[in-house]
Amino acid sequence: MIIYTDDITMLAYNEETNIPILIERVTKALPCIDYELIIVDDGSIDNTADVAKKFEDKHPIRVIRHEHNKGKIEALKTGLQVARGRLEAAERAPSRLDGYLCFFQIT
User: Fold this and answer.
1) Can you point out the beta strands (E) in the chain?
2) Helix, strand or coil for residue 80?
3) Nearest CA to 77 among 102, 51, 50?
4) Which pTM was predicted?
């Protein structure tokens, strides 16, 4: 069993073209950190979740998909509920220039 030190939750909605870019940026930025990238697809109508799942074998990624769009708060709650690490970071998908990065201590 792998215990991750830190989790990063990415909230995504219709980000099929941007998810590969995000995954590559995160993995390059954190080469020496034990982390898991949790991608919460919040009911996208494109192939966001399918594209993200293609990276699960190469990187520490877990994709969770809401069947219907529930909004940012519910997507964030989903990410926090499945987090296994001590510290959780949450960010919107990369096309959102007004994105945020939040850290939560997991106890």
Assistant:
1) 6-12, 35-42, 61-66, 87-92, 101-105
2) helix
3) 102
4) 0.78
Predicted confidence band at 98 (pLDDT cuts at 50, 70, 90)?
Answer: very low
Strand partners, 7: 36, 88
Please count the CA atoms within 13 angstroms of the CA of 64 that sit on its side-chain side. 20
Distance CA 75, CA 73 (A): 5
Edge-to-edge order in the sheet of strand 87-92: 61-66, 35-42, 6-12, 87-92, 101-105
Cβ count within 10 A of residue 6: 18
Q: Going from the N-terminus, what domains does the chain have, and what CATH number goes with each?
A: 6-105 (3.90.550.10)
